[in-house]
Amino acid sequence: MERPEGKTEGKPxxxxxxxxxxxxxxxxxxxxxxxxxxxxxxKVPSLFGYSVVRIVTPSMDPKIPVGSFVLxxxxxxxxxxxxxxxxxxxxxxxxxxxxxxxxxxxxxxSCEDGxxxxxxxxxxxxxxxxxxxYPARGExxxxxxxxxxxxxxAIVTLYREHLPIALLVTILIPTIIMIQGTVKKKIQLAPAxxxxxxxxxxxxxxxxxxxxxxxxxxPQDDPKPQDRQ
Length: 229
Description:
The chain has 229 residues and is of the alpha+beta class.
């Protein structure tokens, strides 16, 4: 049986829209798992030497706004220089931030007992007019700031503050578009399928008539010669 022209079966067609949608869902799943691991362990997970950190205070405004997600690259203490922005676990005993990560700019680098110590400070003069009371220690360094992650920040903010809209934008609308595409494709293939069925019926009828004709025409025997008198 021949397949109607233009009809495809088997594997689904990977359109750019479908690929982008699946990539978005995969990134969301990875981000959720990453944040879950960070919350449970109390530590910043690292993947291929990179970490994602969320800034929860305005201490680095305007360079890094509060609520932003930033990309941190693992670095050795000896590679850190004044002017770098680093993320580290603080020694501040304040119960609100004790043992948590802070992302501040390095003002000076020194050594104490052979270990690196960094004097740090937030860029926001209004909230952080003075250097941090507790310096950052090299053994508690997470890494150096690379860049902000605006798409991640936007997605997480959307889900945190506007969950119904986020579900509509990232799940419902793409799903509806995919369903509409499937229905449209079936509608476009319907005429071809009807033509194929008609063609098959015609061929079957012609074959039946041909078989009947061949069966009704019996072979003629040679006439017997008449007896001579």
